[in-house]
Design brief:
Elements lengths: L4 H30 L28 H5 L12 H7 L11 H8 L10
Length: 115
């Protein structure tokens, strides 16, 4: 069977592509191996001299400062009954009726709800 010109050109085209990739790979390897990039040295900066820290403990003997160390008065504790009265409704997910709505928003201030 005879090889046609179209088949020869197709084969040559593939061969050129393969050889081009091989040459590019060889060139890359040679350049990476023989060409050295010079690194620029970074000059090191001298470390700054830190000042010596001295703590003056005589300030703690100040009479005004001693007044601050007096114990604070004890806070009154809240019982669970007081907390329940201060916050929210018994069931916050239940829809509010008109009576509950009126109790919440009619505190005798401006905007009082009138029937």
């Amino acid at each position: 069977m005879a090889i046609t010109i179209v088949e020869q050109r197709k084969t040559q085209k593939h061969l050129v592509i393969v050889l081009g990739i091989a040459l590019a790979g060889i060139l890359f390897i040679l350049l990476a191996k023989f060409v050295k990039i010079e690194e620029i040295p970074v000059p090191s900066l001298p470390s700054p001299r830190l000042p010596k820290i001295e703590i003056n403990f005589d300030v703690l003997e100040n009479p005004t400062l001693k007044e601050l160390t007096e114990p604070f008065p004890e806070l009154p504790s809240l019982s669970s009954v007081d907390i329940d009265q201060c916050f929210g409704r018994e069931n916050p997910f239940q829809e509010m009726g008109w009576g509950e709505f009126r109790e919440m928003y009619s505190s005798g201030e401006e905007g009082e709800i009138n029937e």
